[in-house]
Design a protein that fits this description.
By secondary structure, this protein is of the alpha+beta class. It has one domain: Double Stranded RNA Binding Domain, CATH 3.30.160.190. About 10% of the residues lie in helices and about 20% in strands. The chain has one helix and four strands. A four-stranded mixed β-sheet has the order 3-2-1-4, covered by helices on one side. The longest helix is centred in the C-terminal third of the chain and has 10 residues. The protein is flat, with a radius of gyration of 19 Å. It is found in: Membrane.
């Protein structure tokens, strides 16, 4: 049985827009360690399933997909955004 995690995509830090930030991602987790290639020093693996990311409009749709395909998935709750409210006049105090 494969394992996966479901999380909500966060806002891109380099952009001001919020496009695609509400999508929920189902990402497979690798069961085996990635061995280091002795020639190049890169990590490698024969398991390509951990490269797959599926996008869903809601967490319920992602859970339903995981249940339908027999995937053991756990949901990582989305972090609450921290708002720092600051007035321009605070610069001159």
């Amino acid at each position: 049985m494969s394992q996966a995690r479901i999380y909500q995509r966060s806002k891109n830090a380099t952009q001001s827009g919020r496009a695609r930030s509400g999508a929920w991602i189902l990402e497979f987790m690798s069961d085996t360690a990635m061995p280091v290639d002795p020639l190049t020093g890169w990590n490698g693996s024969l398991d390509t399933q951990h490269q797959v990311q599926l996008s869903f409009p809601s967490v319920d749709a992602a859970r339903a997909y995981a249940a339908r395909h027999g995937i053991d998935a756990h949901v990582v709750p989305a972090p609450q955004p921290k708002l720092k409210l600051q007035a321009y006049a605070d610069n001159f105090r």
